[in-house]
Amino acid sequence: MVEIYIDSQSGILTEERDGRRYQTSCALGKNGVIAADKKREGDNKTPLGCWPVRGALLRPDRFSCVDSPSFDLRDIKIPWRWIRPDDGWCDDSRYGCYNQPVTLPFSGSAESLWRNDALYDIIITLGYNDRPAFPDLGSAIFLHCRILGRKTAGCVAVMPDFLENLLVRLQLGDSLKIF
């Protein structure tokens, strides 16, 4: 089991497994962090709490490990699938599919998961406001790739090489704890 902690004051993500500790800097919400019960859609804040790992979404044309002889996709222990150009995530709380994947174009508001930048080349989906999803409490809170110097819209972002290594160690039952 992998333990992942994020110290929101220092911006350090710590991964502990098998008695070892790995640390990296991470980016959080542009407007800081907030208690989960005060989180609102579009506030650009990262919710504090413990969020279970649900699965992974990978962009096939940019996922660098695909061509690596030392990486085997069968080593990924959490549910995963390739991101498609028409994949989106509903951020419109008027819809029953709020905070769930959707196919674009979509009649409501939805974020595209197929981006021109590298932020969503690897996405770890987290169990924030998802079972059930409550309207306007925030959506699409992911652990994803980081671009140095950029904060997030509420997610947690780390450098791609760290995320690639973490991806094969994660398993269902693991959680990301933000404090």
CATH class: Mainly Beta
CATH architecture: Beta Barrel
Tally of domains: 1
Q: Quick one: how many beta strands?
A: 13
Helix content: under 10%
Pfam families: YkuD (PF03734)
Protein name: ErfK/YbiS/YcfS/YnhG family protein
Organism: Zymomonas mobilis subsp. mobilis (strain ATCC 31821 / ZM4 / CP4)
Domain L,D-TPase catalytic: 1-179
Account of the 3D structure:
The chain is mainly beta. The chain has one domain (3-178): L,D-transpeptidase catalytic domain-like. It is 4% helix and 35% strand. The chain is built from one helix and 13 strands, in the order ββββββββββββαβ. The protein has one helix spanning 160-167, and strands at residues 3-7, 12-17, 20-25, 33-35, 46-58, 80-82, 87-90, 101-103, 110-112, 122-126, 142-145, 156-158, 175-178. Strands 1, 2, 3, 4, 5, 6, 10, 11, 12 and 13 form a ten-stranded mixed beta sheet that branches. A hairpin with a 2-residue loop joins β2 (12-17) and β3. It is globular and about 45 Å long. The mean pLDDT is 95. Keywords: Cell shape, Cell wall biogenesis/degradation, Peptidoglycan synthesis. One of its GO terms (biological process) is regulation of cell shape. The active site is at residues 144, 155.
